[in-house]
Amino acid sequence: MSVEAARKPYLLWFDLTHDHSTEALMMQFQPACECRLAAGNSFSEKDYEPQPDMICMHYDRPDMPGLNLLLEIKRKAPSIPITMFTVQHSEELAVWAMRSRVWEYMVLALSSTEINRFLHALRQLCDVRRKAGASNKVLQIEHGPSLPDSIR
Length: 152
What we know:
By secondary structure, the chain is α/β, with parallel strands linked by helices. It is built from five helices and five strands, in the order H-E-H-E-E-H-E-H-E-H.
């Protein structure tokens, strides 16, 4: 197995919470991922080498500056997927997130099933991205959640 294939996914975290609780959330992912907390609330690709595999934006109560930061990061680094973690959830916020092209929208608190599904999809994403230059074969990522119980 190559060193690149064995490398843990690198998650860059932005703490946009009022109580600065992101480090506690990061701990849930540290066994499987390399997690780093961003210094401040700005992003420049040159400041983060190597490039993160995923940018994680943690909100308790999303506000205009925090959501605008997500859009700014998306403009500056469109190839880096973004996961939005939020305590405050609404249909309107979820629709906004999907239209803003976040890779994943996760409502806190997370169950172990949700964490495992996220990590499985993240590993697949990292594999696909690392093999992108080596092969023209299109690989599918099992990213979608199962159907909601209310629809079954």
